[in-house]
Structure formats: C-alpha cells, structure tokens
Amino acid sequence: MNVEEPVPSLPDCAWVKSSYSSGEGGQCIEVATSPGIVHVRDSKDRTGPALALASGSWTTFVDFATQD
Question: Mean pLDDT across the chain, nearest whole number?
C-alpha cells in the first residue's frame, strides 16, 4: 500500500455515507467516485485525510468485507 498525502478537498465529488454505517456514530465512512478512483473518508472528519483507491482495489475490498 502506498502512503499518500491527504487529499485537501474533493469539491467535484458527491460523497455518499455507507449504508453499513451505524446511526450511532463511531464507525461511519463516506465514499465518492471519480474516473477510476474511489475516495473514502471518515464522515465525522470531512476535512481530514481521505483514501484514494483504484476502482478494482475497492471492488476487491468490498467483496472480501461482505463475505459471509
């Protein structure tokens, strides 16, 4: 995994809160997409760092995380 500098702001991205995030706080993420990239951030720290993942890497992660 590469460590990148935080993305300061992604104004052109529409952020969506994960449907797996609880309404009680503590474990909430938001995702936004741009061509070939999925951005992930903590919904409680919207000005903090965001991960930028290749779309294929995000798909692999979600498939793994949602396995029974």
Answer: 81
Mean pLDDT, residues 11-31 taken together: 76
Q: Is residue 35 part of a domain?
A: yes
d(CA 43, CA 3): 20
Confirm whether 8 is domain-assigned.
no
CB 50 within 8 A of CB 10: yes
Cα dihedral 28→34→37→38 (10° resolution): 10
CA dist 28 and 1 (Å) reads: 22
- For residue 8, what pLDDT is reported? 52
